Amino acid sequence: MKTQLGIENATLKLVDIESFIGDAKTWHLSFDYLAFPTGMNLAKGEGVAEAKWFEIDKLPRMEEWAHKGWGRAVLMKHAKVAPVAH
Q1: Which pTM does this prediction carry?
Q2: pLDDT tens for residues 58-85?
Q3: Residue 52 φ/ψ, nearest 5 degrees
């Protein structure tokens, strides 16, 4: 988070570990964390085209996410477990 977004201080909470076989028959192991930064300032790192915050109910449409919206679905699932404070 520090390198890509300039976030230096955040509490991380492991909320899920996913294990699955992908389309290419390769095994994937994914660790899902919620991050609670101490500040809201973002600084784009090298290779980052855009970085901005969204209200949870104003996230981009599924079509705008990679992997058919998988990341958005994961975020929404975990936001219901630990709601994002406004």
Answers
A1: 0.69
A2: 888 888 888 888 889 888 888 875 555 5
A3: -155, 160
